[in-house]
Amino acid sequence: MTLQIKSLKQYKKVYQESVDNPEQFWAEQAATFQWQKKWDKVLSWDFKKPDVKWFEGGKMNITENCLDRHLKDRADQTAILWEPNDPNAKTVKYSYQDLYEEVCRFGNALRAKGIKKGDRVCFYMPMVAELAIGVLACARIGAVHSVVFAGFSATALADRIKDASCKMVICSDYNARGAKNIPVKQVVDEAMLQGCTSVETVIVHKNTGGKVNWEPARDVWWSDAVYRRQKHCKPAAMSSEDMLFILYTSGSTGKPKGVVHTCGGYMVYTCFSFKNVFQYEKGDVYWCTADIGWITGHSYIVYGPLLAGATTMMFEGVPTYPDAGRFWQICEKHKVNQFYTAPTAIRALMAKGDEYVEKYDLSDLKVIGSVGEPINVEAWNWYNEKVGKGNAPIVDTWWQTETGGIMITPLPGITDTKPCYASYPMPGIQPILVDSQGVLVEGNDVEGLLCVKFPWPSMIRTTYGDHERCRQVYFSSFENMYFTGDGCRRDSEGRLRIIGRVDDVINVSGHRMGTAEVENAINEHPAVIESAVVGYPHDIKGQGIFAYIIAQEGTVGDAGFEKSIRDVVVKEIGPIAKPDKMLVVPGLPKTRSGKIMRRILRKIASGDASNLGDISTLLNPDVVAVIKEAAGV
Ligand code: WT7
After folding, report:
1. Looking at ligand 1, which atom is closest to the CA of residue 375?
2. Of 356, 368, 486, 530, which sees the most CB atoms within 10 A?
3. Does residue 612 have a pLDDT over 90?
4. How far apart are CA 166 and CA 138, in angstroms?
5. Which residue from 152, 340, 400 has its CB within 8 A of the most atoms of ligand 1, so it is best to mutate?
6. Does residue 252 surpass a pLDDT of 90?
């Protein structure tokens, strides 16, 4: 059984061992899994290339560890608890036996459709159980899944399908989301018209049963695909370093990149971190409210919990439907023990008033988690008092798509908690702070750039199709370190507090976005000459999107224009990237080398232009006063 730390003394001891002798530590953890063939070498690494290999020579299949392994002792235990959008509709339960059979049937269906080991399969689905089943079925047969969040536009979906040359797309007909019924298949149809020539088959899961267009040569209903398929499916023999999945995420430049995770290390780390961060015990009901379209859903709805033999809940809907008590109603209904959500949801629910949360019995909660963005003190306190009732420790978990699993977090009931602090590294994780020159920032009560100096099993291996980009973005800033892109503070007692991104990545409602990506979308508008996008503090979203736009002469920056800009962004990326505020400006502050001075734009967007620093070296210092006036600051 994977190690579960139970005391502070043990945490300190295990942490020290994991640093002194990481290979032995991780070999011990890996040995608790089912391997088809044991590894030859625990770790080899070179951050310069980068080239990181864990458990080389080992053969395994992650689904044998998620499913087959549990059939002897928990076949009848609920694996997935699916809670529908409609509060009056029935919860669906999949036992480990059910899930095993569904995954096998769909794995066989994929094979029958010609999907082979290494082929890429794209998922564009709402939070239905079939998404988890589909993802696991890919892993079963060695196909690589690439899940695209179903809020992305057809263009964004097409970009991702093309980047990975996906052979198949799996979608639902519609997405029941609050009071809406969103056409999902229609978005896939549109994406297919944008040059997705690699796609041979589209499998369509019937969710709400609305009308869809049909391409008979390409489209297949999920139910037809699995019809009469065997409920056993031979697991592919995967090498530890074979690709498990691709997940696209935004960076500070260019198009989103496909972060690649591999089988062996990801398995070991997601299970280990899940068991320890949530202190999951047999019989507990665990609920992470994330979407499987993000890494949180991959690691802590699907893989981590299932590897640990947990009961993991999937929720189809939104926190505010039918009202702002939905999360708490579900917690009460299913006696949820571990609850994991994002600060943006906490802030939004907090703003609706306490009566919603006070109405429900939350006494089964043992651990409550936060992820995705810095949590502010007010939200932390509210979460602690109103949801946890002071009895359920908050785990403020810091990690990234690239890290695969939780890196820095309190361990509930074991280490202390402090508002806004992710606090302590997980065993095996060696975070350090450096200054902009890469010099180690030592001691306490200091700030620096957050790096990791030693490999961990679930770390990014490459960016799909562009290894150089992976090297450049994460491993070239500082020698022999993985650079996270986050600024971080270490308090007087050594706890870590994540301050936020130091690059041009913004975090809007926990959704990660590149400012360049949003600018490129805005620039598609025929009346836009140039734009600059920055984040600004937003009460609910954490950060909002502020767009400065240089428009063609004669353009009136009125509500109609703003709407047309939003429409373009929705078309290019999706609703999550819509600017909150826009300002038409005559120019943008630039350095002599032509680089936009975002520092100034960020300050103005935050409503505080009192101290803009030295602007005399700008190419066009005069424009600053004009922008300030237009912004009314
Ligand atoms: C970025 C990564 C990890 C799953 C969801 C986000 C920010 C993440 C925290 C936290 C402060 C956090 C960082 C990070 N972030 N967790 N607990 N406190 N900031 O994954 O989309 O890859 O975003 O989210 O800035 O770099 P992601």
Report:
1. 18
2. 368
3. no
4. 13
5. 400
6. no
- Going by their DSSP bridges, the two strands 394-397 and 219-221 should be labelled as unpaired
For the ranges 59-68, 79-88, 246-255, 398-407, the lowest mean pLDDT is seen at 246-255
For the CA of 396, the nearest atom of ligand 1? 17
Name residues contacting ligand 1 (CB within 6 A). Answer: 249, 294-296, 371-374, 396-401, 422, 484-486, 498, 500-501, 507, 512
What is the β-pairing status of strands 338-341 and 144-147?
Answer: unpaired
CB proximity list for 597: less than 8 A, separation 6 or greater: 589, 590, 591, 615, 618
Q: Which amino acid is at 6?
A: K
Q: Which atom of ligand 1 is nearest to the CA of 370?
A: 17
The percent helix, strand, coil of the chain (3-state, each to 5) is: 30, 25, 45
The Å distance, Cα 265 to ligand 1 centre, comes to 21
For the segment 349-375, what is each residue's pLDDT rounded down to a tens digit?
Answer: 999 999 999 999 999 999 999 999 999
For ligand 1, atom 18, the nearest C-alpha belongs to 374
Residue 605 identity (one-letter amino acid)? A
pTM of the model: 0.97
What's residue 550's pLDDT? 97
Q: How far apart are CA 66 and CA 262, in angstroms?
A: 16
- Out of 295, 373, 543, mutate this one to test ligand 1's pocket (max ligand atoms within 8 Å of CB): namely 373
How far does the centroid of ligand 1 lie from the alpha carbon of residue 399, in Å? Answer: 5
Closest CA to 460 of 262, 235, 226, 202: 262
610 confidence band (pLDDT: 50, 70, 90): confident
**Residue 525 CA neighbour count, 13 Å, CB half:** 25
Taking residues 72-76, report their average pLDDT. Answer: 98
For 249, other C-beta atoms within 10 Å of its C-beta total 19
Name the closest-CA residue to atom 19, ligand 1.
373
Q: Which of 94, 207, 95, 191 is nearest to 152 (CA)?
A: 191
CA of 372 to the centre of ligand 1 (A): 4
What's residue 565's pLDDT? 98
Tokens of 210: 């609305």
Distance of CA 495 to the CA centre of its chain: 24
